Amino acid sequence: MEYKDYYKILGVERNADEKAIKRAFRKLAVQYHPDKNPGDSRAEERFKEINEAYEVLGDPAKRARYDQLGSSYQAWQRTGGAPGGFDWSQWTSGAPGGMRVEVGDLESILGAGFSDFFTSIFGGMGGAQPSGVGGQASPRGRDVEHSLRISLSEAYHGTRRTLARDGKQLEVTIPPGARTGTRVRLSGQGSRGRSQSGDLYLVVDVEPDARFERQGDDLHVDVQTDMYTALLGGEVTVPTPAGDVTLTVPGGSQPGQTFRLKGRGMPQLRAPSARGDLFARLRVTFPTQLTAEEKDLLVRLSKLRNPDAH
Questions:
Q1: Residues 178 and 278 in one domain
Q2: What is the pLDDT of residues 67-91, one digit of tens each?
Q3: Calpha distance 256→309 (Å, rounded)
C-alpha cells in the first residue's frame, strides 16, 4: 500500500492550523472543481485527492491518527526501509472507541469512493468488535457515526441523500441551516444487536464555499464595483445563496466598507423561517490604463479637490 501525503496534496506545512488547512482546501477545490474542468479526468482525480486530504486533515481525530502514522512512516524511511517493507498492520485495525465508522457506507453517502489508503487506515476508526461477556453481541447494537459532507448551498436549502445500508435504501433529509457538527439521527439503523439495533448518526461537515464565508447564521461576501460607482453612488449586484440581489451604495463609498443585508444569511436550524444577515464587503477596482483624456480629467478633478497642492 502506498503512503499518501495529505499535507503535500493540500500544499500546507505539517504544523498548519485549521484555518490554513481550510484556506488551502478552499482554493484548490475551486481550482479543480469538475464544474470548472468539464471532461478533464486529471482535474477530477485531483479534486478527489483534495477532498480526501481535507476529510482527514480537517477532522482533529483523523488528523491525530494520521500524524502518528506519518511519524512512524518517516522514522522507517530514515532507516533506509525498502519499498513495500513498512508494517501497516498496527494502523489498519482501527482505533479504540465506542462509535463505529464504516467507510463503505461513507462512500455511499458521499457518492464517491476513497483510496485504499484512506479505507485501510480510517475504515475501522472506533472499532468494530462485538462487546459483551464471552465476545457475544450486546443486547443493543452499537451506534454508528458517519461524516457527511455537504455544500453551503445544500446547507442553505436543505438536501436529501440516499444511503445504501444492509440492502436497504435509506432516504436521509438534511434540514436547512445545518452546520458543521450538526447530527442527524436515524433510529435503529446502526449495528444490529440481540434485542435491537443501534442508531445511525450523520455528522454534517459543510464545505468551505468559494464565495461566501459563514459565521454562525451570518454570511460574508466580497462585492466588486468600479471606482465611479463607489465615488458617485449607484447599484451593485450582491450574490446570495438564494440568488443575486441589487444593493444601492451611496456616493463616497470606501474600499472595504461593509453593508448589511438583513435576513439574507443562512436559515436558523430550528427556525428556518428566521435567517441571519449577509454582510457585503465592497471591493473597488481601479483602471490599470488611462487615456490621455481620462488623465487630464483626473488632474483637473485633483486640482478642484486640492487647489493648494498644485
A1: no
A2: 887 766 555 555 555 445 444 454 4
A3: 27
